[in-house]
Amino acid sequence: MAEHVPPAEHPAYPVGLRLAGRRVVVIGGGQVAQRRLPALVAAGADVTLISPSATPSVEAMAESGEITWTRRRYQDGDIADAWYALVATSDPDANNRASEEAERTKTWCVRSDDADAATAWTPATGRSDGVTVAVLTGRDPRRSAAVRDAIVEGLRDGTLAAPHHRSRAPFVALVGGGPGDPDLITVRGRRLLAEADVVIADRLGPRDLLDELPPHVEVIDAAKIPYGRFMAQEAINNALIEHAKAGKAVVRLKGGDPYVFGRGMEEAQALAEAGIPCTVVPGISSSISVPSAAGIPVTHRGVAHEFTVVSGHVAPDDPRSLVDWKSLARLRGTLVILMGVDKIGAIAQALVAHGKAPDTPLALVQEGTTAAQRRVDATLATVAETVKAQDVRPPAVIVIGDVVTVGPHK
């Protein structure tokens, strides 16, 4: 018989346990259990917790029926018929006895207090797009976590190439790219962008991300699609449909959020009419993120209990306007206006005419979240001349209300 060699002498053998429907015993209901239980539950394990007490989060899992909780200390025989055990109490004697039982019953056992006495180690794990990454570096858990994080981040943002070798179905995704800073796109949006064959991009999308795309990806500037007899939006819809029907993975990269003044629903409807499903990936809206980047909270205790987002691309006196400016002037909260730089004089005049104080503070944040960001402050009474004097140009988010004076001026 081969001599038993301590774990330190050999590297661990990595394996993925399929625990769905199989008995798993966790000894101890503290912080270690709180961290490990969600993954065991997600794996479908039949989890029994043995512990006289538990953290509130673990207790909530028991109350919801995700795990079975036996409220007492460990007793010999508790690990019987288990496929896997996690021993994590603050009692060294209980840990030793449970570990010894696991050894007798040939149950793989992790110990939080003594890795050398364990028969299994928990790797640093992470997940991205159906891939589970598990890293073991022996006795250096911080290094394991760092390697895990680097791999998962690379998979998520597309910097680590991991192509699908099975034939991938084409897709169309309407992706909100956020306010401009490429770091503010969602993880899911960045991953889909990395998988695209064709990207139809808006001018206000995070342009820096386009430089990261592989050479084979066709990047189409939505502003330069030949319109011919079509309206601009109709031409964009047709381009999405054409590339999708050609079997391509298509990403429509939009600034902010697709459904916040982004005509995303028009594109989704056009795709649906053509029988093409699409995925909508929400984005961080500039209506909140740009004021935040400039040090302005859209709500603040004791100052504003609501904020209203309005499109300013149509002047208040234009018959096409759908905005009730009279009602907005009576609100006490924050008013955020998008696409309103060239109409801000008329907007301010309408708000004052309907009762808003002329000295109401206002800020214009141009190119928010980018290196070119700048903030210009004014009031409703002075904003028209300030915009002209300071040469404020789109894109800019306009914030009206007392919250403008709350935060530090950035």
Main attributes?
alpha/beta; Rossmann fold; Cobalt-precorrin-4 Transmethylase, domain 1; 4 domains; 5-stranded parallel sheet; elongated; disordered N terminus
How would you explain this protein's 3D organization?
With 410 residues, this protein is an alpha/beta fold. The chain folds into 4 domains: 116 residues, NAD(P)-binding Rossmann-like Domain (Rossmann fold, 3-Layer(aba) Sandwich); 31 residues, no CATH class; 110 residues, 3-Layer(aba) Sandwich (Cobalt-precorrin-4 Transmethylase, domain 1); 119 residues, 2-Layer Sandwich (Methyltransferase, Cobalt-precorrin-4 Transmethylase, Domain 2), CATH 3.30.950. Helix content is 28%, strand content 19%. It has a 5-stranded parallel β-sheet, with helices on both faces. A 5-stranded parallel β-sheet has the order 10-9-11-8-12, with helices on both faces. The protein has a 5-stranded mixed β-sheet with strand order 13-14-17-15-16, with helices on both faces. Helix 6 packs across helix 7. The longest helix is centred in the middle third of the chain and has 17 residues. The chain is elongated and about 85 Å long. The termini are far apart. The N terminus is likely disordered.
Element-level helix/strand string? EHEHEEHEEEHEHEEHEHEHEHEHEEHE
Tell me the radius of gyration: 29 Å
Assign the CATH class of the largest domain.
Answer: Alpha Beta
**So what's the oligomer here?**
single chain
CATH homology superfamily of the largest domain: Tetrapyrrole methylase, C-terminal domain
Tell me the CATH architecture of the largest domain: 2-Layer Sandwich
Low-confidence stretches: 1-5
Largest pleated sheet: 5 strands, parallel
Q: State the end-to-end CA separation.
A: 72 Å
The share of residues in helices is 25-40%
- Name the strands of the widest sheet in spatial order: 3-2-1-4-5
Distinct helical segment count: 11
CATH topology of the largest domain: Methyltransferase, Cobalt-precorrin-4 Transmethylase, Domain 2
Mean pLDDT: 90
Shape: elongated
Strand content: 15-25%
Which structural class do you get from the secondary structure elements?
A: alpha/beta
Compute the number of strand runs.
17
Integer tally of domains: 4
